[in-house]
């Protein structure tokens, strides 16, 4: 009898060991399959699609001034918003109309509103009036990392000399960067005029100033008909009071191509 019970107990132990081994083997196989799937390229790609592609953003920003691009990279890593501020005359338009409407829409579509903060400040003044009213302090208060500035040269046309315009520009940049040392400027002229004489000279001086001071200059006039070409009027409102839809498209497309490299 003792031998019988010993044999039965041995059989029970063997059964328990067999099922235990089978259970852990199955669990190990399932775990290995899960890990295999997790490590598969398809699964990794799926995870990556849930995260922003920062390298792609930086590639699109390759035309930006290097200092601004480095700040953008830092903001992306910190998951903070990079601020772009457009400043100039009312010819720029705003988020809802004019040249800047398409620019801002394309920036948001390309970089995402989570990564860019875009603001616009326009003024119907000369550069001297801008300084007299201390409007540059309002610009500085925005604490933007990148400012695209159209420094009122067209408004200054026939109301002062280019030396005054450049001195006013220097003061704006100085006051803003004194408050925000990390702010980077990009300069651009306003829209061109047909048969203008003094205005193109002002713009040429602005371009020269930008080159001498290593400030990025948006030479969008190269995309318009020449100021001596009558067809330029086809891009302007009557009397040259501003760009029409055709002119806004030319101007905005130049900025889009620069700010969003493809």
Tell me the series of helices and strands, N- to C-terminal.
Answer: HHHHEHEHHEHHEHEH
Q: Mean pLDDT across all residues, rounded?
A: 87
- Characterize the main sheet: 5 strands, parallel
Sequence stretches where pLDDT stays below 50 over 5 or more residues: 1-25, 27-32, 42-49
Number of helices: 11
Specify Rg, calculated over alpha carbons. 31 Å
| Strand order across the largest sheet | 2-1-3-4-5
What percent of residues are in strands?
5-15%
Topology:
Layout: H1 2-39, H2 41-49, H3 54-60, H4 66-77, E1 82-88, H5 99-111, E2 116-122, H6 127-132, H7 135-141, E3 146-149, H8 153-156, H9 162-179, E4 184-187, H10 198-212, E5 216-217, H11 245-259
Parallel strand pairs: 1-2, 1-3, 3-4, 4-5
Features:
262 residues; alpha/beta; 55% helix; single chain
Can you describe this structure?
- This protein is α/β, with parallel strands linked by helices and 262 residues long.
- 55% of the residues lie in helices and 9% in strands.
- The chain contains 11 helices and 5 strands.
- The chain has helices at residues 2-39, 41-49, 54-60, 66-77, 99-111, 127-132, 135-141, 153-156, 162-179, 198-212, 245-259; strands at 82-88, 116-122, 146-149, 184-187, 216-217.
- The chain has a 5-stranded parallel beta sheet with strand order 2-1-3-4-5, sandwiched between helices.
- The longest helix is centred in the first third of the chain and has 38 residues, at 2-39.
- The N and C termini lie far apart (89 Å).
- Mean pLDDT is 87; it is low at 1-25, 27-32 and 42-49.
